[in-house]
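# step 3/5: fold
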Amino acid sequence: AMNTTLEKFDVAIAGAGMVGGAAACLLARCGFSVALLEAHEPKAFDRDQPVGLRVSAISPGSAAILHQAGCWDQVDRTRSCAYRRMHVEEGANNEPGVDFEAPAFGLERLGTIVENELIQASLWEVVRSLQLVQVFCPSKLEGLESGEGGVALKLSSGQQIRADLLIGADGAGSAVRRISGISQQVWDYNQAGLVSVVRKSKPNPGVAWQRFLETGPLAFLPLGDGSSSIVWTLPASEAKEKSELSPDEFMQALNQASEGWLGDVIECGPRASFPLSMRLSDRYVSGRVVLLGDSAHVVHPLAGQGVNLGLADAAALTEMLIKNRKAGKNIADEKALRHFESWRKSESELMAGGIHGLRALFMPPGLSSIRRAGLKLVSKSWHTREAFIRRAAGQGRNAPRISKGDSIESLMHRV
């Protein structure tokens, strides 16, 4: 039986990364009490340090979500780079490729390149200032018991707490998912993303540039000082080799892969590589447990898009919980959670399968003629481009209201 003396929260969130941190801020700002469990306190962001290797392309929809969470202005001001143009081309033959320009779609920007550590540190600061959030750190979830009265959580610290709803935002290796017995399909691409910060002889003018090579896409994402953060998708063994080359040899290889754009590579920072896989959980909801972000889905990280899906999950769940509360339902109402699950599952599966006419771009090498056809299709069909950009902006038809600019206040007061 559950011990009634345990401290009781509306929501418990495992994981204070970008998605868990944003969820905690959004929910507390709507008046829900939140217990936030995190194993390692994020370190304060130091802008005197060089740009970190892990960056995300934050869509306008995600920026709107982070704004409602209370940290976007600080993030944008501290260190970020807006991009207004995205260029996608096929590497094998010298076709011009496709350009997407923000103003053509009525957008001020297509996205903003930001370091993951900066977003996480900024959210952590907001979390620390919110009275409705209680932080349990360092702390991990060790066990849970779910029943009529909510979920009882056993923490690694020995503490026990209760909540109406448990959110798993604890990443690809999610303990919440494991403890809840939710299974997952995993596709291992046997590919890795090699990341580094590099400079070309001409500064990056604020363009997110991607070229599809036989081995996978190469992306240059613009940074504020004219350098670029690269994500180079390669077969795992090749990524390892390339990350061990001398800087000169590496720059030469990168030159070959990106030739013709902004001149030669003249400088490169430290390199790292991380394995790429796609993981889709069979369910996002189990009883009073709901998964958000990478614990629910990891899609091929085509240049830092993964976090946008996770932030949309957090905004969608917030919208849903406000509705439940207004209707006088329990926030863990089963029917509402099922609706949330099907809403977010269809979005992440769309992303995972590739996007509209760009689906062909995700195809393996050897199918590049289909891929070229896909690119041609996209450059010709305005409708497809429009849908692609709306979706990439995180403001497509099925986007949560916060992504489209609604404030938390307006959601709370709309009847």
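# step 4/5: annotate
The two ends are 38 Å apart (CA to CA).
# step 5/5: archive (pending)
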